[in-house]
Amino acid sequence: MKAMILAAGLGTRLLPYTHHTPKPLFTLSGKPVLDRMIHCLKQAGCEAVIINTHHLHHQIEAFIASQNYPLKIHVKHEPTILGTGGAVKNVSDFLGDNPFMLINSDIVTNIDLRRVYNFHASHHHPVTLVLHDYPEFNNVSVDSNECVVEFHSETADNRLAFTGIHVMDPQILGVIPDGQFFSILDAYKKVIANKQCIKAFIVKGHYWKDIGTPEAYKQAALDIMAPQAFQRAYPDYSEDEIFYEQIKGDGSDRIWYRVSSGGRPLIAVDHGIRKTRAVAEVDAFIHIGKHLYTLGLPVPEIFLDDPFSGLVFLQDLVSTHLQDVIAATQEDKDIISHYQAIIHRIGDFSVSGANGFDPAWTYQTTHYSKDLILEKECRYFVEAFLQNYLGMDVRFDDLNEDFDLLADKTLEHAMNGLMHRDMQSRNIMVKNGTYYFIDFQGARLGPVQYDLASLIIDPYVALPIPMQAQLMDLSVDILSKRIGSDKNSFRQCLTYCMVTRNLQILGAFGFLSKVKNKKYFEQYIPTAVKTLKHYFSALKGTNLPNLKSMVERL
Question: What is the pTM of this model?
């Protein structure tokens, strides 16, 4: 048995994602759909496969060359797309004298291809088309003898859909002209006009998905990955119906789901289909999350991921945010106790997390640097908060000298390790007395003081200033000794980080409220402004006149 996989299409319905990746290399659970199809054909008894290519053909050729398949794989590049009929005619020298299978590269299915081929061998008709009931594509009419009689431009209830799987005898090549674009449907219409039967092989009770649109591709990724994720998370899992419940997300555009099956939960996060071949947020989430978990740090376990579809399945902590825990805690001493334990865990995150950390995993910057402070905190504050949210007539250049000095002073006594970059109460989960860190994809090398600042000035819990001062003292006592820093130097960096982090917070709140229309974040702006004023006034001995004047105006 030989087969041809049709992989030359432009994938226009999948733009913009097919600008950088051909559709056959879209992945499901980390494996390209083309790879899945080759393995299905091998399992069906196929001995040799030919793949036609056109769009981004070098990528497909490189992928095939990188594999070691247990069957012969040939690639035929089409400088000009020939259509399905023309593509088949173009490889006639490969197909030989026996019936061959023709299959689309953009379908995901568990249809038994061996059974299909055997069915074709059992009758004398020149073509077998695999059909099924799929209302979205039902446009093929079949008579009482299960022969195809017409292909329609519209769908109807009394019709069936073509699955993209054919088996045909070499004689079909005789009705296809050489060296030109030709539709296989035109060839089939000639067969029907000659009173020959194109036999329908009608299948039921199977899985089939055409991944030709972003929505269909994403659904196929969920369908394939979810059962695998449950099997990895729960070794005794037996396949059961899977339910998805969208849950409240964060300030990003990611979509979060609580996924359940047989009473067992998982979390799925959808980062969106890959828009670039460069390192993306999903890559950082996966690499950093696995790194931290391997080190025994308190983060959820990642069970299954697919960086191209953007889907990641991970442990459901079935827990509570620190924000909720603090809101329900009455006694100050108990609040302090929570934070004291977390300060210790931040030390673990910073010191242990830096061991073996690869900066190539980061998707924004590898380090917390002066450029990052100036662009992602200071400029962000000016443009997203002062200008766009408050409508103030303030330019970044007006404050550039002050920002430059602020950035230098922030880094002057930094004690570097691995920083989370967003260590606030909604990114800390509490379960059975254990504190877990989530949303770690922004981690990079930088000062431990920054994460402490994020924790202490967190506007979601709005700790009283005296309690913040107490936590600063605890942080200095606990971590300066652990990482070998002078207490005064440690405190100085911590205080400056309070200010730079606060600038970032206000920039984010302004952007999310004004641009993303997430008005929920507006309620926290007054607290963040109050905190900024307090810690800015604590910057002793640093001359920031223009920034000081602007902060006083808020």
Answer: 0.91
